[in-house]
Amino acid sequence: MTTRTSDLLTMAAPPTVAVVHGIADDQLxxxxxxxxxxxxxxxxxxxxxxxxxxxxxxxxxxxxxDGPDLLTDGWRDRFATETRRLVRAWSDPSSLEGVSETMGxxxxxxxxxxxxxxxxxxxxxxxxxxxxxxxxxxxxxPLRALVERLGPQGQRMGVFAEPVTSGADLTEFELLLxxxxxxxxxxxxx
Length: 190
What we know:
Blueprint: H1 4-21, H2 39-57, H3 75-89, E1 99-100, E2 105-106, H4 107-129, H5 140-156, H6 172-179
Antiparallel strand pairs: 1-2
Helix pairs in contact: 1-3, 1-4, 2-3, 2-4, 5-6
């Protein structure tokens, strides 16, 4: 059985898993568009997101505190495995019912939040490590709607930075990046 969320995650996960798999060990200290995160930090954060959102799909409590470095032996393959588990967790229709006690918002929104993390942090890691990244076109509209819905709240909570002024000729995904406070032209070279 699948849900809208698991279908979208199925499309969103492969580009991000490919980027994570392509991160070289000597790139872990490089900067990312998330100013306070190096590649290692952001990869650990995304790893934690993938694991925690499995628990959120099952309505279990999660810890967001900094944990141990997850980038130990086999971390790339473990990330791929945990991402498959994430998709399975959100394929249960009950995962989308009601309101998340932990997050205080509808479960459907919580599912879209992990979709946003996969796409945006996939891009963050790709540009930081010089890899290509192309999100599945099917995820763009749900992500745009989520960012519009959560934008001001996300800024107050520090999840999004102030929107970046967008230029002409940007793709739909680049406009989404701008709304989350990212510069689509970001480069690790200052």
